[in-house]
Amino acid sequence: MATINLSAEDFERTVTSNDIVFVDFWASWCGPCRMFAPVYENASTEHPDIVFGKVDTEAEQALAASAQITSIPTLMAFKGGTLVFSQPGALPAAALEQVINAIRDLDVEAALAEQRQSA
User: Fold this and answer.
1) Which residues, at least 6 apart from 30, have a Cβ–Cβ distance to it below 8 Å?
2) Other beta carbons within 10 Å of 92
3) Per-residue confidence at 29, pLDDT binned at 50, 70, 90?
4) Which amino acids are annotated catalytic?
5) Which domain range does residue 14 map to?
6) What is the domain-level CATH number for residue 87?
7) What is the number of alpha carbons within 13 Å of residue 68 lying toward its C-beta?
8) Which residues contact 103 (CB under 8 A, 6 or more apart)?
9) How many Å apart are CA 75 and CA 53, to the nearest integer?
10) pLDDT of 71-97, one tens digit each?
């Protein structure tokens, strides 16, 4: 599956109705964003079972603000509707692949239970 553009109208529905969703917050004027775009697009075709969304922070300023985006590109990952990864900066392909594999292997329920115990 190729990347899909997300807006405030479909962001929450996309995140909650799919098992794994990656979201790239970007802007057209951002050099690192442009460098990361083909890496992200390639990953989306290599992993058709995962949703790869993109949010244009210029067009979706309110959405970017509600997601507390302070640096772009920022990559977020959701599993089972839960935010499980958020990191600013452009990732090289090998690092993105590591994140994808880690998210696939993550047991969200166990991680949440562990987080509640340590709180």
Assistant:
1) 72, 73
2) 11
3) very high
4) 30, 33
5) 4-118
6) 3.40.30.10
7) 4
8) 20, 22, 77, 79, 84, 85
9) 10
10) 999 999 999 999 999 999 999 999 999
